[in-house]
Write a structure and sequence with these properties.
By secondary structure, this protein is mainly alpha-helical. The chain contains 4 helices and 2 strands, in the order ααβαβα. It has a domain of 45 residues.
Length: 126
Amino acid sequence: MADAHGEQAYKRPGEIVLRYGSRRSDTPGLWSPGSPLFVLVVTMVASLFLIYQLTQTLYQLNLAEGERDRWQRPDDVIESLKLKDGNVVADVGCGVGYFSLKLAPKVAEHGSVPAEDILSESLTFL
């Protein structure tokens, strides 16, 4: 005798056979690790976590840069260089590009700011 799923079910007359679950075992459920819904939810949670981490990092960098602006006075330093459109200014030991990013608008479209650092991670961030 076959059940509703095409599987063989053996029972004696008058015996009650209990089946738990209503789907076949080879059919993935909505929340099983291979299902599209599970993958979508995990991807969304991971994306939200990464967005949160990014915003926190940018917030911390903004706080640190604001503090650094007060003691290093980059506007005064850059003004003393008397930069014009087309100048090339090298930022040696640029780190994550604190000065590089402030120098670039001053040399405008025709100039450049080559940035150099011994740490590749800093340059990757820049």
